[in-house]
Amino acid sequence: MMKHAAVLSVVLFCLSLGACARSDISGVWLLRSPNSDGTSRDEYLDLKQSGSTLTGTVVRDYRKIEISEGTVNGNNFHFVTGRTGHQMSFDGTLAGDHLTVEQKSSNGRFDSKGEARRSTAEAMAPPKPLPVPALHDVPYNGLAKTPPMGWNSWNHFAGKIDDATVRQIADAMATNGMKAAGYIYVNIDDTWQLGRDADGNITANKKFPDMKALADYVHSKGLKIGLYSGPGPKTCAGYEGSFGHEEADAKMYAKWGFDYLKYDWCSAGAIYQDSDMQAVYQKMGDALRSTGRPIVFSLCQYGRADVWKWGAKVDGNLWRTTGDISDNWDSMSKIAFKQLAIAPFAKPGHWNDPDMLEVGNGGMTDEEYRTHMALWAMLRAPLLAGNDVRDMSAATKAILLNRDIIAIDQDPLGKPAELAKTDGDVEIWTRPLDRHATALAFFNKSAQPATVKVSWRELKLKAPARARDLWAGKNASISGSGYTARVTGHGSVVLRLQ
Length: 498
Ligand code: GLA
Description:
Layout: H1 2-17, E1 27-34, E2 40-50, E3 53-60, E4 63-73, E5 76-81, E6 88-95, E7 98-105, E8 111-118, E9 149-152, H2 154-157, H3 163-175, H4 178-181, E10 185-187, E11 193-196, E12 202-204, H5 211-220, E13 224-229, H6 246-256, E14 260-264, H7 277-290, E15 296-300, H8 307-310, E16 318-320, H9 329-336, E17 351-353, H10 366-378, E18 383-385, H11 394-400, H12 403-409, E19 418-423, E20 426-432, E21 438-444, E22 450-455, E23 467-469, E24 474-475, E25 482-487, E26 492-497
Parallel strand pairs: 9-10, 9-18, 10-13, 13-14, 14-15, 15-16, 16-17
Antiparallel strand pairs: 1-2, 1-8, 2-3, 3-4, 4-5, 5-6, 6-7, 7-8, 11-12, 19-20, 20-21, 21-26, 22-25, 23-24, 23-26
Helix pairs in contact: 3-5, 6-7, 9-10, 10-11, 10-12
Bound molecules: alpha-D-galactopyranose.
Alpha-D-galactopyranose binds at residues 154, 189-190, 235-237, 264, 300, 324.
């Protein structure tokens, strides 16, 4: 009796203050945040409140992310996810039976408002993996004999890409010299998807009202068009993936007239093991092949599971070798200077992809962008511009359109570069080119200028008859014994020796 009375008085106290029950936000919540394109981003908040302290995880596309700095103050709460510099902050209020939540990224690129309702642990669990096919070699599609060139929407536009912008990009590329220089693919990255129709067909969201018409338009400019999906139920931005719809999606891309698919692992990582990757990518490789349409197959799984050893077997025309690039020197140089070890795995039709270009996006100096471009060219990397090519500075244009540098990237011999020498902070790379030419590049990792002397003998090269300085656009003064390069801080010198 005493016990019941105590419980009753607590309940009455709580009701009168409206406090006790309302302020405990422990439990699983489904947070739905609408995107501006009519889709919404689903995340689960798995929260544990203890007094004014909040701990737990955010489960985004089946991936668990620990929360930190969690606090509860009355009906308001706050927490963050991610590491310093890449944080997402969550601020919310308990409003009756639901939470209102505002999310902001520390880099200012993403913000959203949503509502969370009570949910269950079962709802946030990943689906069971689909059976994976036995391994076999998918026959080569005959594409990408040299590294693919074009443009991709992600680095500059992220989720703010739509039909009108893609058309304008294609217009620009057809007339600003890019198409003439070989930039052919106009690639739509993540956030084009809506969901599935009653027959299970993939549909595009309202940013892309008519995919077939868009493909026709891009083709009418003499360009090719690409798009993006992944083997998981959700893409990296939380949009509809191809999980369980691989064949149907490939058919749809072909029907719309697409020429290129970037296939991004993302939520598949919560379902399959890395050891299943080859089979999972093979499934899409086969699906693309059976459409009968030539479609470049771009593997995006951040260089996991030594993809360079099997990417060609699933008929990947390119495979990412790293995590995502950011528009700064540290990110770009960190990626670039660890690529040489795997350079020999790339060959005509099947290329290492150290990620898309950041040239012209504003986070590096023009000198650093020249180095970025020269590194990618020496690495025989795909050249996918990631900037707004409708509006480029003269310097950006000169970098992306340097025909001599592009020719190094696209050299038909397809032989890898080697580290010939390191002198202080300067790496000296050589690469055999078609018709007995050689590319010789100096990359200065330091912000201080450097003067570097090399002899032909130590580089194991025959004394060349001629040398052209590809950034200066004129002949370089070489001697019978070698060359002295003056390399600005974070700069590059690239010579073609004949
Ligand atoms: C991943 C990829 C990026 C981009 C985004 C889109 O992070 O690595 O290149 O495609 O997904 O969500």
